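Entry for the shared binder. Reason: the reviewer on the internal report wants the predicted structure included alongside the sequence.
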Amino acid sequence: FFLSFFYFFLPFGGFDINVSALQADVVFLSPPWGGPEYVNLPVFDVFAMKPKCSSLLATARLAAEKSVLFMPRNSDVHQLVALAREVDHCEVEQNYLNRKLKAVTAYYGDFPRSSDEGDPQVLRRRRRRQQQ
């Protein structure tokens, strides 16, 4: 089950949603980037966003252990990784289209990676998490 929230659901309470009652495998978040001005910034300050990405991710974790954050191409990668303080893993991916960087996607949580499929350490770690 894939669950996607629009940004106005979470911080403003525009809808009566009990997020903790929802059960999802992944929550996809694409918060507003502040209009077209973000393109002119050398580095997009993730921590200055409204609503706060940390609040969005914390709310998303109530519904799923895994979250995806879709952000502008000039986002500060170090800030995206810093948002992962409550999860075990963060992977940041650059999204290209026609050889041009278009966006950055940050994956929070234990997403399977194709290189991990046969790795015994990864399999043991997953089994331990499932037993907890």
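Summary line for the report: Residues 13 and 50 are 15 Å apart (CA to CA).
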